[in-house]
Amino acid sequence: MLNVKAIELKDQWRRYKRHGDQRAREQLIVAYSPLVKYVAGRLASGLPAHVEEADLVSYGLMGLMNAVERFELEREIKFETYAITRIRGAIIDELRSQDWVPRSVRSRAREIERANAKLENHLQRAPTDEEMADALDIPVEEFQESLLQISTSTIAALDELWTVSDASGDQVSLLDTLHDPGAPDPSQAVDESELKDRVADAIARLPEREKLVIALYYYENLTLREIGEVLGVTESRVSQMHTKAVLRLRSRMSDENGS
C-alpha cells in the first residue's frame, strides 16, 4: 500500500515538474495537506484562544502551495521537511502582519533577554526566576506571568535563530539548506555549520529541565500539554520553561553576534 502511494506521488511530481501538469499539482497539494493540519495544530496550542485553528490552516495552505511550486526534486531533502518549514513560515508571516502581540509584551521580552544576558555574564550560569525578577525589579509572580504572555509571541523563536537568506532574498530555515552535492558555495555551508554548532552549544548550556522541554518540543514533536504530563507539571508551567529557554537562547545568540 505504501509503495503504491509512493509511486503515485513520484509520478505526480514528475508530471508537474517536468510537464507543468496542473492536475498533478492539485493532487500533490491534497496528498500533503495533512502537513498543514499538523503544523497549524502545533502552533495553535501556544496562541490566544481567539486565534482560530481554521485560520491557521488557511494561512498554511498558502505555504504548502508555495512549497510544491518551489521544491526541486534534485535536492537531497524530503519534501515533508521542506514543506513544514514553508507552512510554518506562511502562518507566522500572516500572524505577524496582523500585529496581534501587544507592544508592551515585545518590550518586556527584550528586557528579559537583556537582563538574562547580563546575569549570565556575571553569574556564569543560568539565572533563577528569583534572580531575574530581582534584576527586573518586579515580583517573581509578575515575572512568571510575563513569561506566559510572551509565550504567545515566541512561536517562531527557534526558527528565527535558524534562518538565513537564500539567493532570492527569502528567509528560509536551515532545514532548507541541508547538504546538496551540487551546491557551488562552500562558504555558505561553513556559515550554516557554524550557526548549527552555536545553537547546539547554547542549548547544551540550558538548565536541564529547560533543555528537556526544548528537546521534547522541537525534536520529539510533543505538545506543551504532553510535555507537562511527562514532567508532572501544568501546561502553563511548561509554557514558562519553554519561553525562558527561548529567551535565553535568543539573548545568547544576540550576545555572540554583538561580540
What does this protein structure show overall?
With 259 residues, the chain is mostly helical. The protein has two domains: 2-99, RNA polymerase sigma factor, region 2, helix turn helix motif (Rna Polymerase Sigma Factor, Chain: A), CATH 1.10.1740.10; 103-153 and 205-258, no CATH class. Helix content is 72%, strand content 2%. The protein has helices at residues 2-19, 22-32, 34-44, 53-70, 79-97, 103-123, 129-136, 140-151, 157-161, 186-204, 208-219, 224-231, 235-258; strands spanning 163-165, 171-173. β1 (163-165) and β2 form a beta hairpin. The chain starts with a helix and ends with a helix. The model is unreliable at 156-190 (pLDDT under 50).
Given as residue ranges, the uncertain stretches (5+ residues, pLDDT < 50) are 156-190
Query: How many angstroms separate the termini?
Result: 55 Å
Coarse morphology: elongated
Strand order of the largest sheet: 1-2
What is the number of helices?
13
